[in-house]
């Protein structure tokens, strides 16, 4: 796997190179600044398949470099692993918001880092499917533009919505948070009503736009908090929301549905889209839960909302305005 490691400390670059070699990854390319890294990316005969970035570097930080790499079409999905001494939640949040796939703190264990890079390599292999570089770029562009239909149950990366990251990224984010960081974390699952019907009757791009609009509405509901949102597939989103005393599930649901109503959505044929979101009860991640338990909480939240909506049909208003519209007239 073609790896580019970026750090302004030559000793760290040497340690990274040796750690990668010990895990079977020879020939790691190194850069001592973001500027040098960008030149190497531009001049690479074949695209790099994984990036290892330090955060604290002079002039351009690793987080800024991560954001710049994500803007390159050929690296929209390339694994980016932050390898840094910064363990505070503000840095972790900023890194994942910029597009980081994973986060490892220094001093790092060579075996652990090798395992993280191994996971990244599996992602690369899944994405490549033995295609040429030009075919990969064309398919990535087509996917980002919404022209390729994916399975209804498949997770997708929502583009252009603040706080929206990939599901794997969200799992890695929760794994990285310390117990202190997890103390006030709440996991919500949010279901897009009649999502499977919407998927069946709309074009791939229309469905993706609808998901992006739903994610935007969820983000608006939780915007006063620190949060990340991912689309888990099957019409279900998951959100990690920080705060000891957060608003109720009903409040978030009402605000999100008002936001959707005010968007006045329609598909590419001009047909109105009446999207509606159902928020599940939060799964609270307390002091005694580790990062792995927080990842499990994502799927507990999904199971809860699926079970809840299966057990009872959601009542639709028969007269007057939809329940969430009461906010508009109150």
Describe the structure.
- With 330 residues, the protein is of the alpha/beta class.
- It folds into two domains: 142 residues, 3-Layer(aba) Sandwich (Rossmann fold); 163 residues, Alpha-Beta Plaits, CATH 3.30.70.270.
- Helices cover 46% and strands 15% of the residues.
- Helix 1 links the parallel strand 1 and strand 2.
- Helix 1 crosses helix 5, helix 7 packs across helix 12 and helix 10 crosses helix 11.
- The longest helix is centred in the last third of the chain and has 21 residues.
- The N and C termini lie far apart (58 Å).
For the largest beta sheet, what order do the strands appear in spatially? 2-1-3-4-5
Number of domains: 2
Element string (H = helix, E = strand): EHEHEHEHEHHHHEHHEEHEEHH
Count all strands and give the number: 10
Strand content: 5-15%
CATH first level of the largest domain? Alpha Beta
Radius of gyration: 21 Å
Helix-and-strand structural type: alpha/beta
Modified residues (4-aspartylphosphate): 54
InterPro entries: CheY-like_superfamily, Sig_transdc_resp-reg_receiver, WalR-like
Keywords: DNA-binding, Phosphoprotein, Transcription, Transcription regulation, Two-component regulatory system
Organism: Allgaiera indica
What keyword list fits this structure?
transcription regulation, 330 residues, five-stranded parallel β-sheet, globular, 13 helices, 10 strands, alpha/beta, five-stranded antiparallel β-sheet, Rossmann fold, 15% strand, 2 domains, Alpha-Beta Plaits
Give a brief rundown of this model.
The chain is built from 13 helices and ten strands.
């Amino acid at each position: 796997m073609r790896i580019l490691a970026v750090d302004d400390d030559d000793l760290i670059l040497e340690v990274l190179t040796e750690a990668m070699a010990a895990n079977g990854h020879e020939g790691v390319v190194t850069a001592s600044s973001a500027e040098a890294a960008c030149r190497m990316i531009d001049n690479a005969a074949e695209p790099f398949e994984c990036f290892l970035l330090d955060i604290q570097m002079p002039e351009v930080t690793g987080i800024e470099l991560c954001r710049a790499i994500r803007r390159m079409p050929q690296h929209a999905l390339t694994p980016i692993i932050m390898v840094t001494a910064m363990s505070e939640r503000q840095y972790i949040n900023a890194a994942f918001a910029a597009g980081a796939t994973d986060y490892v703190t220094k001093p790092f264990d060579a075996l652990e880092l090798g395992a993280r890079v191994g996971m990244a390599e599996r992602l690369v292999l899944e994405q490549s499917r033995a295609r040429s570089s030009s075919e990969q770029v064309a398919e990535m562009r087509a996917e980002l533009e919404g022209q390729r239909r994916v399975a209804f149950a498949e997770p997708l990366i929502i583009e252009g919505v603040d706080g929206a990251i990939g599901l794997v990224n969200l799992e890695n984010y929760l794994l990285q948070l310390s117990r202190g960081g997890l103390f006030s974390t709440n996991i919500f699952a949010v279901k897009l009503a009649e999502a499977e019907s919407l998927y069946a009757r709309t074009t791939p791009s229309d469905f993706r736009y609808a998901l992006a609009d739903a994610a935007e509405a969820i983000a608006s509901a939780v915007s006063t908090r620190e949060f990340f949102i991912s689309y888990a597939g099957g019409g279900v989103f998951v959100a990690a929301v920080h705060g000891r005393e957060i608003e109720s599930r009903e409040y978030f649901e009402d605000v999100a549905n008002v936001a959707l109503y005010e968007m006045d959505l329609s598909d590419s044929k001009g047909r109105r889209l009446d999207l509606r979101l159902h928020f599940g009860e939060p799964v609270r991640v307390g002091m005694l839960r580790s990062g792995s338990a927080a990842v499990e909480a994502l799927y507990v939240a999904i199971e809860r909302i699926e079970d809840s909506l299966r057990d009872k049909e959601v009542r639709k208003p028969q007269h007057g305005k939809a329940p969430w519209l009461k906010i508009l007239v109150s």
